[in-house]
Design goal:
Elements: E1 6-10, H1 11-24, E2 29-33, H2 35-40, H3 43-49, E3 55-58, H4 61-69, E4 76-78, H5 87-93, E5 97-100, H6 103-110, E6 118-123, H7 135-147, E7 151-157, H8 170-180, E8 187-188, H9 192-197, E9 205-206, E10 232-244, E11 249-250, E12 256-257, E13 262-267, E14 284-287, E15 290-295, E16 303-306, E17 318-322, H10 328-334, H11 339-344, E18 352-355
Parallel strand pairs: 1-18, 2-3, 2-9, 3-4, 4-5, 5-6, 6-7, 7-8
Antiparallel strand pairs: 1-10, 10-13, 10-17, 11-12, 13-16, 14-15, 14-17, 15-16
The structure holds pyridoxal-5'-phosphate.
Pyridoxal-5'-phosphate binds at residues 33, 35, 79, 159, 191-192, 207-210, 217.
């Protein structure tokens, strides 16, 4: 009998979340963003379930090659482009598209000797100050790419820093328009937050990630308000139940002291499974489908839960850490992080199952 923890993946939810993207951006083509092992969901699994996407966007060349070799004929985009001249023959051979975000990449591409032209997404730094050409250098970069015999179709892209927040996309849109407006080329700007909130950003291609996995890009609004369904459910069981007297302490550091007599359950799930160690007492959890809270410090292999709302609970009672019935967004908010980090942080030791 394996340890009772498992992560299950609802493939129908992936398809239905893609339909939510389509409903919000009906005229755009969709890059399914599958970087970081599809946000922890498994690259091949996500690409298979997202067969309705128009292309796949990720970071690692090896991953892109794996997807191509698995028989995927659709466009595949490397969101950070390439890192060395040696990458380019593999990219051309596998028909991959690349972001080009700096002069070094531009020069590598211009001086490559490739058997076929590489499609390029030229990236503008419109204010995030991470990757992309400065606005003043953008037009020149596009013209050089247009002149290069190594380059195929060209599209223009940028990435929003605060589409989920108060500043929104206004300044970055204005910057993009000023730098890129003169080119009649396809564009790609929108992450999940912009897909949901800013139709004026949709353009030719949108790039949703987190919403495909059923979580919300917004701190204040829940995924279910948009009709998004969680794909990953992290579940386990109680492996011990105990009575505490008033004042008894739980776990490392005795961080939680029982304020009165209470029952607690010990769950086979800890930070070595990907549950956030910094989740405090009070973080929500479902035991036998009922909402309760974790108490005390999360350890490597276990965490402890308050059984007050679940008097019937015993060893073997099912526990949902996040997913169906309890959004990872809520757990993340309690732990001071984002669902993105929880989903990506699932560790390889957790057995995985697929639900059709
Ligand atoms: C990760 C990423 C996305 C997807 O962002 P979400 O917030 O998950 O929708 C889109 N574009 C780029 C360039 C990214 O790196």
């Amino acid at each position: 009998m394996p340890r009772p923890i498992r992560a299950s993946f609802d493939l129908g939810a992936l398809r239905s979340n893609l339909a939510v993207v389509r409903a919000h951006a009906p005229r755009a083509r969709v890059w399914g963003v599958v970087k970081a092992n599809a946000y922890g969901h498994g690259l091949e699994r996500a690409v298979g379930a997202l067969a309705g996407a128009d292309g796949y966007a990720l970071l690692d060349l090896d991953d892109a090659v794996r997807v191509r070799d698995a028989g995927v004929r659709k466009p595949i985009l490397l969101l950070e482009g390439f890192f060395a001249p040696d990458d380019l023959p593999t990219i051309a051979e596998h028909g991959l598209a690349v972001a080009v975000h700096n002069d070094e990449q531009l020069r590598m591409l211009e001086s490559a000797g490739l058997p076929s032209r590489v499609p390029v997404y030229v990236k503008l730094n419109s204010g995030m100050n991470r990757l992309g050409f400065a606005p003043a250098a953008f037009a020149e970069a596009v013209r050089r790419l247009q002149a290069s015999r190594m380059v195929g179709e060209i599209a223009l892209m940028t990435h929003f820093a605060d589409a989920d927040g108060e500043r929104g996309v206004g300044e970055q849109m204005a910057c993009f328009e000023a730098a890129a407006g003169g080119f009649a080329l396809p564009r790609s700007l929108a992450n999940s937050a912009a897909v949901l909130r800013y139709p004026q950003t949709h353009a030719e291609w949108v790039r949703p990630g987190i919403m495909l996995y059923g979580c919300s890009p917004f701190p204040q609004s829940g995924a279910d308000a948009f009709g998004l369904v969680p794909v990953m459910t992290l579940a386990s069981e109680l492996i011990a139940v105990r009575e505490l007297a008033r004042g008894d302490r739980v776990g490392y550091g005795g961080a939680f002291a029982a304020p009165k007599r209470m029952r607690i359950g010990v769950v086979a799930c800890g930070y070595a499974d990907g549950y956030p160690r910094h989740a405090p007492t009070g973080t929500p959890v479902l035991v036998a489908g009922k909402r309760t809270r974790i108490v005390g410090r999360v350890s490597m292999d276990t965490l402890t839960v308050d059984l007050a709302p679940v008097p019937e609970a015993s060893v073997g009672t099912p526990v949902t850490l996040w997913g169906a019935g309890l959004s990872a967004d809520e757990v993340a908010a309690a732990a001071g992080t984002l669902s993105y980090e929880l989903l990506c942080g699932l560790t390889p030791r957790v057995p995985q199952v697929e639900l059709e």
